[in-house]
């Protein structure tokens, strides 16, 4: 019984110590907007599978495209005739 009382008292003390004394504020996002501008290129190089977020091209398989370049903005599917 005494152990139960000590454990309960310790639990209440920990909760009281960890509870903030003031309200919590919600962080607001900045008012600015980020725009993405792709490179203006009329012709995409042959064999490209994706355009990356940083504007570079990837010729890797689509599952591995743009790794380390921020991800894929646009993926291309190439159909080949037999």
How would you explain this protein's 3D organization?
The protein has 82 residues and is of the alpha+beta class. It has a domain at 50-82. The chain is built from 1 helix and 3 strands; from the N terminus they run αβββ. It is elongated, with a radius of gyration of 28 Å. The model has no long low-confidence stretch (mean pLDDT 79).
The helix/strand order is HEEE
Structural class: alpha+beta
- Taking all residues together, what is the mean pLDDT? 79
Report the radius of gyration as a whole number of Å: 28 Å
Question: What amount of the residues lies in strands?
Answer: 5-15%
Global morphology: elongated
Helix content: 10-25%
> CA-to-CA gap between the ends?
82 Å
Number of helices: 1
For the biggest β-sheet, the strand order reads 2-1-3
Number of strands: 3
SSE map:
Layout: H1 2-18, E1 50-52, E2 57-58, E3 72-75
Antiparallel strand pairs: 1-2, 1-3
Signal peptide: 1-23
Keywords: Signal
Protein name: DUF3761 domain-containing protein
Question: What's the quick description here?
Answer:
With 82 residues, this protein is α+β, with helices and mostly antiparallel strands.
